[in-house]
């Protein structure tokens, strides 16, 4: 299908949550900026619009969201920095009529997203025609100053578009050299190898019951894997809290799990941050970001930015500690504040200031120790490691549900503030995979009940911990996979199955999206870590030479403007909402200006 030259058209590739959010902002801004002129909107996605692939309703209800129902909204409020109009709407809890502290299932979230999409579509005026294409976009062509052509799978005739907006969400990836080698090894020896993938999309029927399975990765992908291979195979839980017991079905494998850190992501915080909140930003705000942007050349994350991030998160932590638990400090807040402000970031002087004012090490913030919780620890045996990890997870659960440690929640607020500044740095900085992983580890961990289930599975022997800094080998002589950890030197675990419990890296070089791969090959710029580089102001795709493409935009996790999480908490400023608003207004302004230059139609 193509559009007529007299009607402007936008092609939106990706109709999941980000595409839906963009559509909502387009509808909100359209009356002011475009009026009742005719417009064709083409939505291209092989999956249902609204939920898209990740949140589709046709998946196991055993899988949960990673956020509480009261903490998820697709609608703007007065805290969002918008030029366009605020259009409030319900949270998942309010829409579904469920208790706010509940963790909704993925299908429940998918149903909410479908409703949001239908509402956004209904808000469009009658002059806008919406066309849904349940297929895959293969390639974008066309001159910078002319209409774009979007080729779709299964059609020889491209869509014609004045503008293209890429909201493709999370990307699949082709195997890297290591994964290809492991797959070849598995094929030669009749083993099971599952590469990085979205767990809900992975065919787990090949994972053998009752046998050892090596699992590399201890984040959210592992939690889904754990659920699908236990409850998903007929197991069940009895009791609650610390007395929770797993009753196996006999069809479970034995999951031997390890990772770089060797521990799961920190539990979701189980209380609300009440009372005085840290005044943010303080040490990494607009002033510091502006100074970085004035520097010539690239900005190095570790050298130039991480010290500011460290000090900002420390500020959030100690402000909360001093304001809520002054009895656990030895200085007046004003004295500490002055000393903290004067000390250089991440140095001995700052450490001395903190040590003098905060006597209990458990009340101090050490980001390096958090990132490497098991470094230097050695266990006498594999069994000793199991006990040690269960104690670690239990302590984490206790702390993250204790308001007495609400400094942790203040650090979470600091992380959100930091992410907003990193987005302003845009294509001047490449934070790499470490920062996003560290953020997720601290701020986007599993619900507390999931970690209680993990403990029950460990006690039942269904999950076994491998430890940190794991090494995985393909033993050609024995025809098995082997794994070992720095925590138990010399102890190896053998298995005939290996599962990579992590998401594919969102790189343009390895993406299995033909559209994005072609876009990169034809001139779109990518960071060293493989993200699509976009203008931080309005999301326009940048060419190799740094020029923004006038007719191509991109929003989402595959870009340098990726935000801190998939969804927005109410009343937290909604960076993704602001991005959607700016991009929608830029698109409509572009089309309006072109419409004003078109000749008037001939009268009858």
TrEMBL record:
Xref: SUPFAM superfamilies: FAD/NAD(P)-binding domain
Highest taxon listed in the record's lineage: Bacteria
Domain FAD-dependent urate hydroxylase HpyO/Asp monooxygenase CreE-like FAD/NAD(P)-binding: 11-170
One Pfam family here: NAD_binding_9
Official protein name in the record: FAD/NAD(P)-binding protein
Species the sequence originates in: Streptomyces flavochromogenes
Lineage: Bacteria, Bacillati, Actinomycetota, Actinomycetes, Kitasatosporales
